[in-house]
């Protein structure tokens, strides 16, 4: 964990170790008590393919399971 300060132009410089680990592009997400920097992949489609490479179900099957789980949780 590191402390960083905005410069006079409002820029934030991340430590080299953080940039090397997570990259140079981030999405800023506002949360209830601050902000969160979410690293963005160089190629978002490749990142999604990698993330879901081991998923053997179709998108429709996943939607159906999610729908059933939501209905069960709602008590229907």
Topology diagram in text:
Blueprint: H1 16-22, E1 26-31, E2 34-39, H2 44-51, H3 59-74
Antiparallel strand pairs: 1-2
InterPro entries: SpoVT-AbrB_dom, SpoVT-AbrB_sf
GO molecular function: DNA binding
Domain SpoVT-AbrB: 4-45
Keywords:
76 residues; alpha+beta; Pemi-like Protein 1, Chain: D; 3 helices
Walk me through what this model shows.
- The chain has helices at 16-22, 44-51, 59-74; strands spanning 26-31, 34-39.
- The protein has 76 residues and is an alpha+beta fold.
- The chain folds into 2 domains: 1-40, Ribbon (Pemi-like Protein 1, Chain: D), CATH 2.10.260; 42-76, no CATH class.
- Strands 1-2 form a two-stranded antiparallel ribbon.
- A hairpin with a 2-residue loop joins strand 1 (26-31) and strand 2.
Helical content stands at 40-55%
- The CATH topology of the largest domain is Pemi-like Protein 1, Chain: D
In one word, what is the shape? elongated
Based on the structure given, which CATH architecture of the largest domain is correct? Ribbon
| Quaternary state of the chains | single chain
Give the tally of β-strands.
2
Low-confidence stretches: none
Computed structural class:
alpha+beta
Please indicate the percent range of residues in DSSP E strands (runs of 2 or more): 15-25%
Radius of gyration: 19 Å
Lateral strand order in the biggest sheet: 1-2
CATH uppermost class of the largest domain:
Mainly Beta
Order of helices and strands: HEEHH
Q: Number of folding domains?
A: 2
Rounded average pLDDT: 89
Span between termini: 45 Å
Biggest pleated-sheet summary: 2 strands, antiparallel
The number of helical runs is 3
Domain SpoVT-AbrB: 4-45
GO molecular function: DNA binding
Organism: Halohasta litchfieldiae
Protein name: SpoVT-AbrB domain-containing protein
